[in-house]
Amino acid sequence: MIWKTEHITPQNDLYSFTQAFRKNSSPSTESNTIAIVGGGPKGMYALNHFVNQIHLNPTTKHYQVLWFNRDELFACGPNYDIHQPNYLLINYCIGHVHAFHPAYRDLENQKSFVDWLTAVKIVDTAVEPTDFASRALVGHYLQWVATQTIRNLPLHVQIELISQPVIAITDRDSKATIETNTGHWDVDSLLLTTGHCYQNSSLIDHPRIPAAQYIRTPYPVSQFENIPPQAHVGIIGIGLTFIDIALALTEGRGGSFQQGTYHRSGKEPTIYPFSRTSLPILCRGPQYQMQRTLYILTESQFKKWMRRSAKIDFVTEVLPLIEEEVQLAYYAVMFNITDLEMTRNKITQIPVSERFMLNDLLRPALNSEEKIIQYIQMNIDEARKGEEKSPLMAAAAVWGEICTHIAALYKTVGFTGASQQQLDQYYFGAFNRVSYGPPIANMEKICALAKAGIIRFGALPNPTISWQADQQTFSVYDVSGKVIQIHSLIDARIARPALQKRNAALYDNLLLQGSIRAHENEDYIPGSMSIDKCGKCTTIGGLPVYCYGSNTEGVFFDNDTLSRTKNDTACYWVQETLRQM
């Protein structure tokens, strides 16, 4: 079952609720003022931490919480925008979604997404943890959680939601000044949960490309409405965001899917996706509460690494064991055996040239459109079997099993600079492609669109793009000289922090004024600002300034937007804020 907003009773939006809620309270003149800059799920989690810690540690001090966001989509953010189309889905089953923190279960009316959906649904179908849901529906859940948190505010804590982009922050002694286009506020403590505020570098060095033809951000998908039918559209990136764009340009224009076939509305363009590898993402089935046995990368192995005093070389020390683990997972399912030595013996009987290797998982040889479509169909068939019966899906699942441990090594012991760069810039994306893909239903749609000739997988790895000013079109070339002419170009990549590229205005301003500096690991500069292992900015003294979420990448690893516990730096910010104020 795929749950959508049409399956629940209408919900009030958080911003309107909070505006009405504030009419009954006003801040004290002696209030301590704290600010959360960023209104997505991470900002909401931080607010929840703060409120619950006040309840656990009662005080008579007055606090005013200023929560900034660029628009009114507080708690859900753009990823879980409550107004987006229902064909945009989350990429894992709903049993994994729980926006409350287990430490506060005795203080709140906590409900997982499954519990909440069961309470608000208007259809008779039972809610199962292995179901999927639209991102808009998850957004309603996140706003409900925020509403519960605000209802639970102590009397001496007031909150104000400010739906204006923050353009500058100036630190001075024990305070910081936050500026928007219409005002400024002095605060005593600051948490930056700015999410995906980064811009990708332009792939084309030409100043006069019409903005309507070179669309630099993938959301909201409503911005694609002006792309004319039958146009040739290039999409940079073949990941989860590409799927959203492809569906917006087809299903979002009145097309429909029936039994694996796409029925045209006549309004569709032709879509040409490409990336550095031009390999499609793997989908996955509804796996929930299943843990695969690990043979090599066991708890004891990771504990051994955690005791190290010197940095670890990811490429030479960790990657070979991942390769062996992936191979063991593949053949343990293929031969239906669980014993380590028996599996190894079976593998030795296979000629080396014929063995399944890590590169077969991460970089399969797909050099034609026909092979790419066959690969997508094969993946769908394997995903339906599940990790227990599909060798491929078992191999792909290894990364998900070990990723939390890799993240722990990343932020504590640390990897050498050169190997961290390899992990960040190649292996992280490669493993995510095979391990964190979309639900089967969405990949079936992509396959149907490809078979209908609407999506054209040209197999253009790492292409070169140029703008033809006289023709007002783009030319896309691969290394062999093959070329495709397109009318519109959409950048579907999700940009990461890159201070050295000045790809986020707020952080660029902080860098130019000397408030922050770039994090460095030996000779490698990942792109994030310098923070300590608790997320605190290392260059601003006098007041607590912390980062939480995407802005910690490079110091922390694999930030999950919806996770309450992974890389949770908000708890440290709350602790220091309450201790100092």
UniProtKB/TrEMBL annotation:
Coiled-coil intervals: none
Pfam families: NAD_binding_9 (PF13454)
Superkingdom to which the source organism belongs: Bacteria
Positions of the FAD-dependent urate hydroxylase HpyO/Asp monooxygenase CreE-like FAD/NAD(P)-binding domain: 35-196
Family annotation (PANTHER family): BLR0577 PROTEIN (PTHR40254)
Name listed for the protein in its UniProt record: FAD/NAD(P)-binding protein
